[in-house]
């Protein structure tokens, strides 16, 4: 070592001292976020002003002055003190004030009381729930059915149970709000296709196929679903189910069918759109419907094969974490199902009435009828909009008021304007039930003609 | 009070029984998962509480945790073994399978996701979803179920087990009854209105019954206005998105219910979680939020909302409302209080945690609750100032798209509320509330004496009893059923994996005899299954300790 030149030793010594200094000096920190002193922090806290919890709502907002119904919302309804014929409640089969249904509910009330005081997992499962599930499964000819205690929560809990982050869902633009919320909760990739446009859907499916070929590994674990409605609430028409089934098998996409409006309406026995088209029900992976329209009860159900439905018993949020359906409502639904099974001709009657009023409402100046001829929930939209949505809504309100004053209860279709993905245009909802007589249907049609004449011209 | 230093963050020492009450002094109260001594947080917090606030979260000895993990480990090993045998056809596959025509579709469920369900849950599945066939009162009738293939399928024998004591249903005030007089008005309304509505609130679904109910709820709670909804779960998941949106901040408790979590997620706001009932954690989050603003743009938050529950259903703890309200006022945040379990169950006249702490309902911005638990009906409500409720009438998802509450259920709530408020001319309502309080205190005291580990506040009617080991979950529930007592057991994933528990819901309708039967059964079973983990059991001679509650004077 002593052979080494002096400058070498000195250099090494300096390096060693430098290293020691680096080791012991404080680490170099990035500019710390809390440059702020305590006083500045307190000032920031003092100065911050939040928005008010809710923005003020104008007093004349249409939704604040809603119709108050005194008494039951049956065929003859008392709205705001006036007696009218009900063309606004989805009571398609007229089961709302059926005596047999009421007495079944009364019997259940005597036996079980009102509430179930618990979710299904913790002593909230009653024998009526099990019976209702069996009956629904038998009626729809599927293996199993599951009941929810609220119609909205049915499809909104069913979709996120199967479709998770990273999965792909193809959904129609006109899907109802409950489906939209279910899709939002699932965090999947949503692809909207134009309403009832099979070419658009096929285009999206083809695009997805080319994507898959680029990344086959990912494609093997990405689930694909298609969500459609049997009878769309927002437009009154039906989905082309046979074509959808063909697309299902071609591109390997599962179908979820939402039948809230078509259950108890379409088909020879009221089994919905699968019966209407004559399709094997096993081809549809999941059918979801609510019991609040045709069955005149509260709640909803999903039916399908056990392989699919059983999963919801542990992962359907609205099922596991919420109290079960009150037994009197379940008993009412069972009785309503009995009536539906015993009188299969009411569906024909309902369809005839729908056709009749559909024809009668054609040709009203200023209003066009939107919906299939056999759909019991129609929309009447303005043929020409007068500029802004607000003005359209006001105009339609005048038409509705005219009709209400003359004894026909109607309502506008309500939407949350800022939340909907594809907001439908403002419209008047016309609902046909089996209890309306032909004179009443004609009266309604002629009244609407008069109202349109006086208000829109 | 003689000794101000005895107050430490609301925990009271019983100073004149020092030698026997060493357990309190040595402070083995679990604070948010950490065993700590007494937390001394100054007297200022103590004066917020007008009465004692005692919560217990005792931690089990170490060997219990070890054995629990061991239990899960053994279960997992057997699970893998079973899966292997099923995959190779050595064991029959009992689970439903995909259709033949759809075998080439992407599989609907990942095999691994269902591992827990298939192998661990399935073994003890008979303890849940037990069907009953009577009113869920203090006693009910169970339908007997047997399984021939180890819980894969069940069949009913047709026999009914009668008069099982019900410790699982949320029937706090005993309004789940079938007494003809009590249900008279409900029967009349059912006959008049039928069972359905078939329309939404904003279209043709607002009945005069709803208006009546809303006025009554507002009067009951002492607020300006209220709005009712058809389902309690949906009340949260559909109204939180209406109140907050992007650019807002939600501070939510660790153990909030799924409906609150879902509502927060659907709203699109940023969510930050604070430790359960921990005010320091909440304050830190509030300060950081206001000082630093939104994460990358540093813009100020539009609004900050705190989501808490009145009584947490898995822990039995009561929210620290006075501290939260003082924090909220200091930092200008909004408070959303979910009183699903606490409305009707706590408070001198059953008005919930707001009354329990002696505060005014104006302190809470959004009062939310459900009618399923204490009122024996279904549905939920949101109450508060008139502006808030008007906004919800116009912008809530439920008002526009979901069916309104059905009239017989609304009538049940009306009659239960009138009974509670004394408007039906009797003092039955108050009696029920008092009875519930007495039952709760008695039940909890006896369980402590026996040496079980119980979580939660002394005044909460939800009593979780810790079981810890997975093997004991099934054993506990089935043996209690043999003794004709129906209990609820919960495990992973509703609770942390090592803290499986049995949860009792005390009801005002339980008589002293029923509670004694349950307690004796628990005593026996506790010895048999070695469940008495508590190191600090009091002796079973209550006259040796006087449970004097020292009131704070201020």
TrEMBL record, chain A:
Needed cofactors, names only, are: pyridoxal 5'-phosphate
Q: What's a Gene Ontology MF term here?
A: serine C-palmitoyltransferase activity
Q: What is its EC number?
A: 2.3.1.50
Give the source species: Herpetotheres cachinnans
Q: Which InterPro entries match?
A: Aminotransferase_I/II_large, AON_synthase_class-II, PyrdxlP-dep_Trfase, PyrdxlP-dep_Trfase_major, PyrdxlP-dep_Trfase_small
Transmembrane spans: 6-24, 145-163
Per the record, the similarity remark reads: Belongs to the class-II pyridoxal-phosphate-dependent aminotransferase family.
Pfam families under this entry?
A: Aminotran_1_2
Taken from the UniProt entry, a GO cellular component term is: endoplasmic reticulum
The main enzyme category here is transferase
GO biological-process terms attached to the record: ceramide biosynthetic process; sphingosine biosynthetic process
Which UniProt keywords are listed? Acyltransferase, Lipid metabolism, Membrane, Pyridoxal phosphate, Sphingolipid metabolism, Transferase, Transmembrane, Transmembrane helix
Residue intervals of the Aminotransferase class I/classII large domain: 83-446
Biochemical pathway:
Sphingolipid metabolism; Lipid metabolism; sphingolipid metabolism
Please give the name of this protein. Answer: Serine palmitoyltransferase 1
Automatic annotation (TrEMBL), chain B:
Domain Aminotransferase class I/classII large span(s) in chain numbering: 162-522
Q: Where in the cell is it found?
A: Endoplasmic reticulum membrane
Q: Which Pfam families match?
A: Aminotran_1_2
Q: Topology versus the membrane, per the UniProt entry?
A: Single-pass membrane protein
Q: Does the keyword Membrane apply?
A: yes
The record, for SUPFAM superfamilies, names: PLP-dependent transferases
Q: Which GO terms describe its molecular function?
A: pyridoxal phosphate binding; serine C-palmitoyltransferase activity
Q: What is its EC number?
A: 2.3.1.50
Cofactor(s) the protein needs: pyridoxal 5'-phosphate
What's the protein called, per UniProt? serine C-palmitoyltransferase
One example of a Gene Ontology biological process annotation: sphingosine biosynthetic process
Q: Record's family?
A: Belongs to the class-II pyridoxal-phosphate-dependent aminotransferase family.
Pathway of this protein? Sphingolipid metabolism; Lipid metabolism; sphingolipid metabolism
Question: Keywords for this entry?
Answer: Acyltransferase, Endoplasmic reticulum, Lipid metabolism, Membrane, Pyridoxal phosphate, Sphingolipid metabolism, Transferase, Transmembrane, Transmembrane helix
Q: Which gene codes for it?
A: Sptlc3
Q: Where are the transmembrane segments?
A: 60-81
Q: Which top EC class is named for this enzyme in its record?
A: transferase
Which region ranges are annotated with the description Disordered? 1-21
Gene Ontology cellular-component terms for this entry are: endoplasmic reticulum membrane; serine palmitoyltransferase complex
């Amino acid at each position: 070592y002593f052979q080494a030149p002096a400058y070498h030793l000195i250099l090494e010594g300096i390096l060693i001292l430098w290293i020691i200094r680096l080791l012991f000096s404080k680490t170099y920190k990035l500019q710390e976020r809390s440059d702020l002193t305590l006083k500045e922090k307190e000032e920031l806290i003092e100065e911050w002003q939040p928005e008010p919890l809710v923005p003020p709502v104008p007093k004349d907002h249409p939704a604040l002055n809603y119709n108050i119904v005194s008494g039951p919302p049956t065929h003859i309804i008392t709205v705001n003190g006036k007696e009218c014929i009900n063309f606004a409640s989805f009571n398609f089969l007229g089961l709302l004030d059926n005596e047999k249904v009421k007495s079944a509910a009364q019997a259940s009330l005597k036996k079980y009381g009102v509430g179930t005081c618990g979710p299904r997992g913790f002593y909230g499962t009653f024998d009526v729930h099990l019976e209702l599930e069996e009956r629904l499964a038998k009626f729809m000819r599927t293996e199993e059915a599951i009941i929810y205690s609220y119609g909205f929560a049915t499809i909104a809990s069913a979709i996120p149970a199967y479709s998770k982050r990273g999965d792909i869902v193809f959904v129609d633009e006109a899907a109802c709000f409950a489906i939209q919320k279910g899709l939002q909760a699932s965090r999947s990739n949503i692809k909207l296709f134009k309403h009832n446009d099979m070419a658009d859907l096929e285009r999206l499916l083809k695009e997805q196929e080319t994507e898959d070929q680029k990344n086959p590994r990912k494609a093997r674990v990405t689930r694909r679903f298609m969500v459609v409605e049997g009878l769309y609430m927002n437009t009154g028409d039906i989905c082309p189910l046979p074509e959808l089934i063909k697309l299902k098998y071609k591109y390997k996409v599962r179908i979820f069918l939402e039948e809230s409006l078509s259950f108890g309406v379409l088909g020879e026995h009221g089994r919905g759109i699968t019966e209407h088209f004559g399709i094997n029900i096993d081809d549809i992976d999941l059918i979801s419907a609510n019991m609040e329209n045709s069955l005149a009860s509260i709640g909803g159900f999903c039916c399908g094969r056990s392989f699919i439905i059983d999963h919801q018993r542990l992962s359907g949020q609205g099922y596991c974490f919420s109290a079960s359906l009150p037994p009197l409502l379940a008993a009412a639904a069972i009785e309503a199902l009995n009536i539906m099974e015993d009188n299969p001709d009411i569906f024909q009657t309902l369809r005839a009435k729908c056709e009749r009023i559909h024809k009668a409402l054609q040709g009203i100046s200023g209003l066009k009828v939107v919906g299939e001829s056999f759909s019991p929930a129609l929309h009447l939209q303005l043929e020409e909009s007068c500029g802004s949505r607000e003005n359209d809504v006001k105009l339609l309100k005048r038409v509705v008021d005219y009709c209400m004053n003359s004894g026909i209860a109607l309502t506008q279709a309500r939407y949350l304007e800022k939340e909907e993905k594809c907001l439908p245009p403002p419209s008047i909802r016309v609902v046909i039930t089996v209890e309306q007589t032909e004179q009443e249907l004609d009266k309604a049609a002629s009244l609407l003609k008069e109202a349109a004449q006086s208000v829109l011209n | 009070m003689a000794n101000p230093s005895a107050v430490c963050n609301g925990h009271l020492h019983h100073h004149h029984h020092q030698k026997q009450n060493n357990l309190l002094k040595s402070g083995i109260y679990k604070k948010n998962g950490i065993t700590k001594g007494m937390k001394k947080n100054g007297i200022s917090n103590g004066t917020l509480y007008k009465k004692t606030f005692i919560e217990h979260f005792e931690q089990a000895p170490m060997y219990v945790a070890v054995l629990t993990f061991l239990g899960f480990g053994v279960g997992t090993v057997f699970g893998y073994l079973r899966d292997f045998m099923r995959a190779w056809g050595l064991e029959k596959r009992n689970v439903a399978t995909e259709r033949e025509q759809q075998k080439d579709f992407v599989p609907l469920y990942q095999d691994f996701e269902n591992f827990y369900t298939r192998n661990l849950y399935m073994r003890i599945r008979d303890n849940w979803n037990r069907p009953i066939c009577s009113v869920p009162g203090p006693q009910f009738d169970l339908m007997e179920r047997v399984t021939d293939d180890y819980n894969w399928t069940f069949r009913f024998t047709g026999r009914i087990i009668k008069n099982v004591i019900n410790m699982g249903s949320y029937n706090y005030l005993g309004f789940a009854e079938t007494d003809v007089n009590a249900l008279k008005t409900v029967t009349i309304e059912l006959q008049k209105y039928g069972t359905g509505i078939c329309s939404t609130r904003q279209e043709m679904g607002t009945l005069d019954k709803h208006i009546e109910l809303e006025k009554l709820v507002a009067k009951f709670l002492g607020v300006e206005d209220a709005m009712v909804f058809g389902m309690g779960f949906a009340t949260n998941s559909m109204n939180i998105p209406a109140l907050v949106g992007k650019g807002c901040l939600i501070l939510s408790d660790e153990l909030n219910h799924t409906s609150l979590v879902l509502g927060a997620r659907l709203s699109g706001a940023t969510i930050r979680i604070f430790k359960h009932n921990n005010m320091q954690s909440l304050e830190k989050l509030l300060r950081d939020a206001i000082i630093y603003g939104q994460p990358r743009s540093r813009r100020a938050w539009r609004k900050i909302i705190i989501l808490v529950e009145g009584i947490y259903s898995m822990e039995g703890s009561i929210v620290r409302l006075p501290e939260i309200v003082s924090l909220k006022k200091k930092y200008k945040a909004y408070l959303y209080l979910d009183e699903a379990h606490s409305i009707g169950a706590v408070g001198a006249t059953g008005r919930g945690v707001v009354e329990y702490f002696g505060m005014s309902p104006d302190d809470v911005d959004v009062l939310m609750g459900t009618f399923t638990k204490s009122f024996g009906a279904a549905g939920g409500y949101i109450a508060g100032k008139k502006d808030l409720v008007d906004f919800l009438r116009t912008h809530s998802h439920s008002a526009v798209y979901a069916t309104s509450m059905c009239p017989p259920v609304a009538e049940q709530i009306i009659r239960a509320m009138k009974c509670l408020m004394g408007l039906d001319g009797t003092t039955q309502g108050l009696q029920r509330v008092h009875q519930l309080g007495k039952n709760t205190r008695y039940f909890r005291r006896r369980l402590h004496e026996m040496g079980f580990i119980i979580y939660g506040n002394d005044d909460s009617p939800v009593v979780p009893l810790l079981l810890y080991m997975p093997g004991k979950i099934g054993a506990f529930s089935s043996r209690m059923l043999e003794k004709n007592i129906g209990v609820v057991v919960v495990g992973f994933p509703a609770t942390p994996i090592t803290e499986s528990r049995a949860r009792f819901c005390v009801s005002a309708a339980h008589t002293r005899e029923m509670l004694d039967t349950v307690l004796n059964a628990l005593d026996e079973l506790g010895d048999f299954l070695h469940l008495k983990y508590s190191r600090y059991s009091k002796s079973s001679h209550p006259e040796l300790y006087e449970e004097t509650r020292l009131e704070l004077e201020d």
